[in-house]
């Protein structure tokens, strides 16, 4: 966490006491693709591991040529399941996902379209890297992911702490505490694909409607604490006094900081933090991705 000052260069992190413990680069620009489905694993306080119910992950909101391309025709049920896996794991770019499996981007495209079928070594890679249940992959029956997905040797997953505070996408809420109750597992490749430093990520729940349509009430935000230098027009989580806010930030010519809501037209006016009171505001991190409730 970092206090805003005239230098704007001092980095800091959100410090959460261990005694209270209990998840697209340049994302959140308006417009863009429909959200992709998401899968994760919650690590409860008693260390019991359970699967997160299907939700929605928004890795970004930028419109680009890829989003405007004509949809692919998937020819086989197996191809559809392979495509569903990549969507469920955050819809990583095909090149990134293929590399994690040890195959080429073209080969992965052929598998997902149903032009070719993967051999046993590729099926094993899905299991070892992402914990995919091979029986489901071949038949479509049962769960997509193995119950022991988190203990699969070689699974490149990172557990992101989910903190029991609600970041106010509105006027700012006073958190009950900064207690961590759970954690959510993401593939390291996915976190890197959204421009995040995996070890610096946390998850917070948004509360309020001021950032609609970008951030719905109750969405879970992936926040990278290493990104504490404010970049104009990007979404950040701020601690303002005892409260927490989620806003789009811009530096003004006079050195003050402007915090804007995407839902400004519905009664959420912009706020200006003058330089002389900027010490009351600190940066927790940049919001890079969203998980929406099912």
TrEMBL record:
Coiled coil: none annotated. GO terms for molecular function: DNA binding. PROSITE patterns: HTH_CROC1 (PS50943). The keyword Transcription regulation applies. The keyword Transcription regulation applies. It comes from the Bacteria. Residues 97-137 form the HTH cro/C1-type domain. Pfam families: HTH_3, Peptidase_S24. Keywords: DNA-binding, Transcription, Transcription regulation. This is Helix-turn-helix transcriptional regulator. It comes from Agrobacterium pusense.
